[in-house]
């Protein structure tokens, strides 16, 4: 087969933020820009996504960044950068709230730099124009229940009883989602009714809360998290693709809620792993009936209205764990497998580069699936060729791709894990 790197196609050097002009032009008027990563532990993925996000916020008026993180922890960041009176006065302490394993995903100095920039940017903006920061993920069942209880205890004696009823239903499982999932997998007694009732009652009383609409949105979102987290943990025990789909459908539902909350003209930046933002229909995920955020946002908001950017590198280092819940460590990332997407891009040149899908759709070899590296929070460099390459039709999975020839590990903020590790989703540990 003819080598891809022997087929000339246009690519753009990546050197600094000004190198992003071709990408910004290609994004155009899209309202959804999804920025991926090939691992959860690579410094350059965070710094380049920050550079893109800054320009989108400053030059194109994007309203918020939504990340593959828990809602309660991310909402603390949102309050901090918007200057609400409560909260931490230290970005390091703030990001240590991300104490669910893997803590390094959002508790790192690269994210700290983004958070401080957002806070500084927002100081010059009116409240309705301040850029936000939100979490899309579904894992925080107990944390979200705690947030609801704290909020309602001060504001609504009627609703607090529904919240306590939901909390009491989960008490026997000791804050352990796996224990809950195992206990209810094969019996009809579960906590689904309690969390649904709580969500419906909170929604019904929306107009009764104070003028801080974002605080009420936060409470309602925590209630939604409890509903979908309960559903997710039950589905997880049954296996298959259902729990993955519950998770990504929850992230899409949260994104749509944020868009509705911010108004008809708002624009969103989404930070997630490539496996979430790259359209699943153009990978082998489709054979397992798996969907993801990239697919759903295209289906629900039209392909022309969203722009998907994948990331990858040829070699370097990464922060990951040897197994689920293991201590983080810095690992070498070997040179990409021969014949993979990353290998071909390295063969073209060792220069960091931007590739627009519109420039490579004419290449016949890229109309068939090609291996594309994906590193999760669990990683073993010695065996990556057996499970870390996702067959992908690259020009359809993404609208653009940022290739960084050699990358280094992210720089974690040391945080003690709170013992609330989410259940192992191996092999889909993204």
UniProtKB/TrEMBL annotation:
Pfam families: Erythro_esteras. CDD domains: Ere-like. This is Erythromycin esterase family protein. InterPro entries: Emycin_Estase, Hydrolase/PRTase-associated, UCP036794_erythomycin. Gene3D superfamilies: Biosynthetic Protein domain, EreA-like (biosynthetic domain), EreA-like, domain 2. It comes from the Bacteria. Coiled coil: none annotated.
């Amino acid at each position: 087969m003819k080598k891809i790197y022997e087929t000339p196609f246009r690519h753009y050097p990546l050197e600094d933020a000004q190198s992003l002009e071709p990408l910004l032009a290609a994004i155009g008027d899209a309202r959804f820009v999804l920025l991926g990563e090939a691992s959860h532990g690579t410094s350059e993925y965070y710094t380049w996504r920050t550079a893109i996000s800054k320009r989108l916020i400053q030059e194109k008026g994007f309203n918020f960044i939504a990340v593959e993180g828990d809602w309660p922890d991310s909402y603390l960041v949102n309050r901090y950068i918007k200057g609400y009176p409560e909260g931490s006065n230290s970005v390091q302490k703030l990001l240590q709230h991300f104490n669910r394993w893997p803590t390094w995903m959002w508790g790192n100095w690269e994210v700290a730099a983004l958070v401080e920039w957002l806070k500084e940017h927002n100081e010059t903006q009116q409240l309705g124009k301040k850029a936000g920061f939100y979490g899309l993920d579904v894992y925080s069942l107990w944390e979200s229940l705690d947030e609801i209880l704290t909020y309602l205890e001060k504001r609504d004696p009627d609703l607090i009883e529904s919240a306590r009823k939901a909390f009491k239903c989960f008490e026997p499982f000791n804050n352990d989602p796996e224990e809950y999932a195992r206990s209810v997998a094969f019996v009809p007694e579960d906590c689904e009714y309690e969390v649904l009732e709580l969500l419906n009652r909170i929604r019904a009383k929306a107009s009764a809360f104070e003028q801080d609409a974002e605080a009420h949105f936060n409470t309602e979102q925590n209630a939604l998290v409890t509903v979908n987290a309960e559903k997710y943990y039950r589905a997880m025990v049954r296996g298959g693709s259902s729990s993955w789909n519950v998770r990504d459908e929850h992230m899409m539902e949260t994104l749509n809620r944020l868009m509705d909350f911010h108004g008809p003209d708002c624009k969103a930046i989404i930070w997630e792993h490539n496996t979430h933002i790259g359209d699943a229909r153009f990978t082998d995920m489709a054979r397992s009936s798996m969907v993801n955020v990239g697919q759903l946002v295209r289906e629900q908001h039209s392909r022309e209205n969203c722009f998907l950017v994948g990331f990858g590198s040829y070699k370097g280092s990464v922060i990951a764990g040897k197994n689920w819940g293991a201590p983080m460590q810095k690992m070498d990332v070997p040179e990409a497998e021969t014949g993979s997407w990353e290998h071909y891009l390295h063969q073209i040149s060792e220069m960091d580069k931007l590739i627009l899908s519109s420039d490579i759709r004419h290449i016949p070899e890229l109309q068939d699936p090609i291996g594309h590296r994906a590193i999760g929070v669990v990683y073993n460099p010695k065996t990556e060729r057996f499970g870390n390459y996702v067959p992908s039709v690259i020009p359809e999975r993404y609208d653009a791709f940022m290739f960084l020839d050699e990358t280094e590990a992210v720089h974690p903020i040391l945080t003690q894990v709170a013992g609330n590790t989410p259940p192992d989703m191996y092999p889909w540990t993204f």
